[in-house]
Amino acid sequence: MPHRNEIGATSDSITILLPGLNGGGLELGQLPSFLSTNGFNTVVPEIKGYLYGSPADNYEEWLSQVHNCVDEHKLQYKTINLAGISMGATFALAIATQRSDISSIALYSPVLRYDGWSVPWYRFLLNIAYSLGIRNWEYSEREPFGIKNLELRRRIRDKFKSHELSEVGAPLITARHLYEANKLMAYTTKNLNLINSRLLLIQSVEDDTCSVWSAEKILSKVKSDLRRTIWLGNSYHIVTIDNEREIVLNETLRFLARAKGGNLGIDNYYLDMSPKALRTRTL
Q1: In whole angstroms, what is the distance from residue 205 CA to residue 239 CA?
Q2: Distance between CA atoms of 2 and 40, rounded to whole angstroms?
Q3: Bridge-partner residues for 174, per DSSP?
Q4: Are 200 and 252 in contact (CB under 8 A)?
Q5: Beta bridge partners of 82
Q6: In the chain, N or C terminus with fewer CB closer than 10 Å?
């Protein structure tokens, strides 16, 4: 029998965590350490051409690298889960459309189109410019940076002034990154009906980057037998580090612990699951 801890984590399962587009993993917040502390194995794969620090590559190559990561860990673990923030959530969905061996997926602010309230009206023109061959440009992230918490937003603003990588990713996103992300979103939207993995979706109703349309589209199309949805009202896009991050972490813990039970219903879903303490963090 595999080892099982007090909340149901087994040593034969692993969760692959996917950061946001051109990010470095900081946008996952305490999620990796929190899950590990509570008995869950995790890994954040190095995805060249997608993460910060390497020239953008095509989205098929991004997917190929994560498929290789899944295949590698299947040699050691019986159960493979995926979790992703922002474009990392879209990425997780895309992987699940191409495999039948992903047990569960946790999605935080998945993006199928950039239609949030802070997205500039001219953003669609950038796609047109790229298709016309005008590609030597970068998109500059702007306030509120996907963060409602004012103090954390101030810290990110200071980092961006120094051109540093922050908790919301890099201050600039290249044209190629955005072009490939658009293709990834289009592919994922078209193939949502191929997904059978159990699903947790956490979405802010005030998301500044993408409206609730993306979440509603996912929920209406996937074939998952368990679809657990959490709507947040005091966060923006990067819910893993914003005001309601404790809810995000504990709901993820509950989901991974309960996912093997199928569609349990609200009463059994929360049975014997008390919130876990977070490591002290100054915002």
Answers
A1: 11
A2: 13
A3: 138
A4: yes
A5: 16, 105
A6: N
Report pLDDT digits (tens) over 104-126: 999 999 999 999 999 987 777 78
Q: Are strands 172-174 and 41-43 parallel, antiparallel or unpaired?
A: unpaired
Mean pLDDT of 18-40: 96
Mean confidence (pLDDT) of the chain: 89
pLDDT tens digit sequence for 246-256: 999 999 999 99
pLDDT digits (tens, 9 = 90+) for 197-241: 999 999 999 999 999 999 999 999 999 999 999 999 999 999 999
* 145 Ramachandran zone, left/alpha/beta (phi>0; psi -120 to 50): left
219-248: b (≥16 Cβ within 10 Å) or e:
beebebebebebebeebbbbbbbbbbbebb
Identify the CA nearest to 35 among candidates 51, 21, 20, 17. Answer: 17
- CA–CA distance, 58 with 195 (Å, rounded to integer): 23
Nearest of 45, 44, 101 to residue 78 by alpha carbon: 101
Secondary structure (H, E, C), the chain: CCCECCCCCECCEEEEEECCCCCCCHHHCCHHHHHHHCCCEEECCCCCCCCCCCCCCCHHHHHHHHHHHHHHHHCCCCEEEEEEECHHHHHHHHHHHCCCCEEEEEEECCCCCCCCCCCCCCHHHHHHHHHCCCCCCEEECCCCCCCCCHHHHHHHHHHHHCCCCECCECCEEEHHHHHHHHHHHHHHHHCHHHCCCEEEEEEECCCCCCCCHHHHHHHHHCCCCCEEEEEECCCCCCCCCCCCHHHHHHHHHHHHHHHHHCCCCHHHHCCCCCCCCCCCCCC
